[in-house]
Write a structure and sequence with these properties.
Elements lengths: L4 H14 L25 H15 L14 H11 L6
Helix pairs in contact: 1-2, 1-3
């Protein structure tokens, strides 16, 4: 059974909140429209750390060729939803 976009975004939110690279004042709601670089204020190294943390959390690999197309949490949820292993019970 595949997760819904809302479930994937909830899991992404958990990873975001666990990252040391996220400034403390970035506490607003993280939703599908949140821009990963602008709103979360991640530099390129922090983005790669974020992607690796997501790959671990979702037990998947984000294809490198899709990274250029990922700008928002919603974009990321779409990629993770397409490539993630089925949700565990």
């Amino acid at each position: 059974m595949r997760e819904s976009e809302a479930e994937i975004i909830t899991r992404i939110q958990e990873v975001v909140r666990s990252l040391d690279a996220i400034p403390a004042d970035v506490s607003r709601t993280i939703d599908a429209d949140t821009n990963i670089v602008r709103d979360l204020r991640l530099d390129s190294l922090a983005v790669m750390d974020f992607i690796m943390a997501l790959e671990t959390r979702f037990d998947t690999i984000v294809p490198l060729d899709s990274l250029a197309e990922i700008h928002t949490i919603g974009d990321l949820a779409g990629v993770l939803g397409a490539s993630a292993a089925p949700a565990r019970s």
